[in-house]
Specification:
Shape: elongated
Largest sheet: 6 strands, antiparallel, barrel
Organism: Agathobaculum butyriciproducens
InterPro entries: Beta-barrel_RND-rel, BSH_RND-rel
Keywords: Membrane, Transmembrane, Transmembrane helix
Helix content: 25-40%
Structural class: alpha+beta
Number of helices: 7
Protein name: Membrane fusion protein
Distance between the termini: 75 Å
Strand content: 25-35%
Number of domains: 3
Length: about 425
């Protein structure tokens, strides 16, 4: 009987343990659900990461190394005598136009150097004498002087030698006209007569001791002669291959023109040849307009594709571009690092990670894929369409619309990372 009583009492204790375990399990499950729910809630309600849509201008371009091919004629100084240039590098000259004065010896050149300030001073005195009877309005003269100073600054920046000299002379003349009321005509006349007499004496001493050097053809003058004038000619570009180009530019220039006074770039166009990747050559065609950025000189020039030579399976091609713009720097360039600009795009910069596609169904049931981005306007997500203009490695340049409110505008806060992106959805910020 004792054993039966002990056996009967042990069964209820076992049932109570099972019930306790069940309660613990339920509580743990509830806590887990609450925890996961909180995590999911936080994930969906966390403020999204944004970046502003910025206005940018980017080039669709690639880089290379360009070589100038021009029709150039060195100007020989057979006598080796002293020379004074009359024109500056980059200036356009006509056939038979004077380029320089050649002096028979150093003494004659020294005499010429004395003449220059005399001629300038006589010219200023003549202006002063003429200005004494000029009743020009002072206020108007001040305006013209200010304008001339601005022009002079711009011409100095552009490096136009003749224009700078002309503007400086005009400025001196205008300054004298403004001070005409303070001029003593008797003193000015006496000084002028003395200078004219000295000028005549110097000119007499120079008689027969100078020769004028003139341009053999029309074109642009350059003081720089590098020896490539007879090597890098436009005619040599006909049917030139990449291999021939490499051999041509590798030639050592001749020193036979070491005594040259400069050169004339004949005609009014030039050619720029460059090796480029074959995949870039496939994007170009003869006659296409490009822009070349001379990166070292910080200057750009419009060009036209003259020819593209790509042979077989070669990974490079020879691009020849033709240009007509000249400057004092350009006529002296030979080899230059360049950026070849195919097109320039202006719009809004959008990270690729922000781009989404939304489906739109019209009244006929036709579904269209609309590319766009979500923006954060206050605490509301909004979807805005984009029209891609240019694709870079990690971003797009897209069109900015001034009239369509459904398209992206500058400074919109573009969502680059977020959860549960939906149009017109309120989010925690």
């Amino acid at each position: 009987m004792g054993q039966q009583t002990k056996s009967t009492k042990s069964k209820p204790r076992k049932r109570r343990n099972d019930g306790g375990n069940r309660v613990v399990f339920i509580i743990a499950a509830v806590l887990m659900v609450i925890y996961l729910g909180g995590r999911l809630s936080n994930a969906f309600s966390a403020a999204p990461e944004t970046t502003p849509a910025l206005h940018v201008t980017v080039n669709d371009s690639f880089t290379s190394d360009g070589w100038f091919f021009r029709d150039e004629e060195p100007i020989d100084n057979a006598t080796g005598s002293s020379v004074k240039h009359i024109v500056y590098s980059g200036e356009r000259v006509q056939q038979d136009a004077p380029l320089a004065i050649i002096y028979s010896d150093q003494e004659s050149m020294d005499l010429s150097r004395q003449l220059d300030p005399l001629e300038e001073r006589i010219s200023l005195l003549d202006t002063a004498l003429q200005s004494t009877s000029d009743s020009s309005n002072i206020a108007k003269l001040d305006q013209v002087i200010t304008l001339t100073i601005e022009q002079l600054a711009e011409q100095v920046k552009e490096g136009s030698g003749s224009s700078v000299a002309s503007a400086a002379s005009s400025l001196r003349t205008l300054s004298l006209r403004r001070e005409a009321g303070n001029v003593d005509t008797n003193e000015v006349s006496a000084e002028r007569d003395a200078l004219v007499s000295e000028q005549s004496s110097l000119e007499h001493q120079l008689t027969g001791r100078t020769t004028e050097l003139t341009a053999s053809s029309s074109g642009y003058f350059s003081e720089v002669v590098d020896g490539y004038e007879s090597i890098l000619t436009p005619s040599s570009l006909d049917e030139m291959t990449v291999e021939q180009f490499d051999k041509t530019v590798a030639q050592q220039p001749s020193a036979e023109n070491s005594n040259s006074l400069g050169k004339i770039v004949k005609g009014f166009n030039w050619y720029l040849a460059a090796k480029i990747p074959a995949e870039q050559a496939e994007r170009l065609q003869v006659g296409q307009e490009l822009t070349v950025n001379f990166t070292q000189a910080s200057m750009e020039s419009k060009v036209t594709v003259h020819s593209i030579n790509h042979q077989g399976n070669s990974d490079t091609a020879l691009l020849v571009m033709e240009g007509t713009e000249f400057s004092s720097e350009m006529v002296s360039m030979r080899e230059q690092p360049i950026e070849i600009i195919i097109a320039t795009y202006t719009g809004l910069k959008v990270p690729k990670s922000a781009v989404r596609v939304q489906e739109q169904t019209d009244s006929d049931g036709k579904t269209t894929q609309i590319p766009g981005v979500f923006i954060l306007s206050g605490s509301i997500q909004k979807f805005k369409m984009i029209n891609e203009l240019f694709e870079a490695d990690d971003y797009y340049v897209v069109e900015q619309s001034a009239t369509n409110s459904d398209m992206l505008v500058e400074r919109d806060q573009v969502i680059v990372q977020g959860k549960n992106l939906q149009n017109n959805m309120v989010v925690k910020t």
